[in-house]
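=== RUN LOG ===
request id: a7f3
mode: sequence -> structure
chains: 1
length: 612
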Amino acid sequence: MTKKIVALCLLVALGLIALPALAQTNPAETVPFDHWAYDAVQKLVDKGIIIGYPDGTFRGNRAMTRYEFAMAISRMLDALQKDPNMRGPAGKDGVNGTNGTNGTNGTNGTNGTNGTNGTNGTNGAPGKDGVVDENAVKAICAKLCDEFKKELKDVKDRVDYLEDDVYNLTDRVTKLEQNQGPKVTGWIDYRLGLATVNRPVIESGLEFGRDEFDNLTGKIGIEGKITSDLSARAVLKVRDTSPGSVAVWTETAGQQIVPVDGFTNLAVGSQVTAATASGGIGHQAEQVWLDEACLDFTMNVWPRAHLVAGRQFQSYGLGLLVNNARQAQQGLRVGFNNVLGTSVAFDAFVGGADYAFQSPWASEPGDIQLGDGYASMRLSYKRPNWALGANWLPNGVGDESGWGADLWARFWGGRELQAEFATQNKELDGHDYTEHNDPIALMAMVDVWRGHNWALKGYYSQADAEYSPFYSTANPYFELYGNEDGSTWLPWERWLRNPLVMSNLNVLGGRLNFKLASADWTAVYYGLHGRSDFWAHTLWGDDSGTRSFTEGEGSTRAPYDRLWAISVKKPVANGVDLNLTYAQQLLESETAEDFPGLNDASLLVMGIAVGF
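=== RESULT ===
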């Protein structure tokens, strides 16, 4: 019954909803007081849900339109929002609906700050001292020993065997130490090949051909410990060819051609004619000579110096100022490492310029030759990735003197740089360089790139026309191939087995090492450029300094100005490597035009070198 009354009230209210808001008459006044719906109409009017028609009537007996009904519902909802008291009491809870699907997890909130630590509790009272039942422990040990009796016996047997092995090894080491002494050492170097040669022909001047040759060089000696502090070395050497030659020029004697090893009289007018007791014209083919003989030890008393006494080889830096590879010298070499606890080292050599300590100089042929001393010194400082050295030659061969400095550095992935600068203050006969600055020389080698199976090294050198210390990289040891004389093209071994530094030349080139087909390959290229027209310190010049194969005025060009070679080394037996090299020296273009008879020079050589 209640629901019907509410519905009837709503219908009445919605029937009057269309009355305009500006009606001056209250629509409830048109409903009789004794009408059963009067109170409901009045309440709807008071709440603003119905406002009556424009004429102020309610017209409760008229059917309402859909629009009037919608307007009444809208006003009723607005009234409910504005006046919560209009809502009736809550009804009974309805039945629960089915659970909806879970929503996605929200993002985690930030962690809260840690709370403060609580105070430490008080220490408990110390416990009672433990009591060890020794009898119980012994019983347990005895039981374990009995249980593992077999395993313990095996361990004991193995320990006994190990002790026996240690005793045997100790006896063997002691015996080796007692029997430690000199051992045989040396090497054999054999080369076989074809090389370009030139032969003088009366009708046409020079005739180029190709000759077969073979070279055999051997060294054999003994070296090793004599005592716990002393070592010794003695080596003999022999070759089956005559020595190579180099040019020496001085104001006193002009140009002379001397062997790379042995010694010769450089006095005015002297001639190389026969061997003498002092070395004469050098070590000849099939001649055996004492190449090294020295004692090596470190003093046990202050100052703790390292000494080498006797016939020996030495070199400073890249050897631009001091390098006696062409011939050993007799003397005393002393070295101090880590001076005063630093990384500084000092090295000095005092001895003779020649085996016989004899000067190469005499004012006239036949005059008495006075003793010729030789002294060199080096001070160096080394760190893990770089090093510096200062070199001094106060008294070289004859009256030579000079000084220099060198550098070594490791950088960028293990690449290395080596460089050296040197200057010569006096020439071999003692003359100063009064007409020009002291001649200088420079060498540099740098790792351009290193790969897993290849490496490229750049090279540069320069030497003024009068720079030529007798014992230096500018005058290295080399042997001749076939009938070459070194006066037309460079001796092959001078640049194939040595860094190329030569008076009056700038040299720019490089070396490429790589692995291919289980072999080690090397490719070399040098470009040569003359520095002046004075060539007297080379075999390309004459006594006046004029270059050979020159028409008219002196030339500043090297007659052979491009050198290249490729070589391969492959193991063919245990401890034996086979080497094969092909090389060319290319004739300079201007020289080729002026002298059509000259040709490029080439070399093909196979070699086997074995050390022992």
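=== NOTES ===
Helices lie at 2-15, 38-46, 66-82, 134-147, 149-179, 492-496, 589-594.
The two ends are 130 Å apart (CA to CA).
=== END ===
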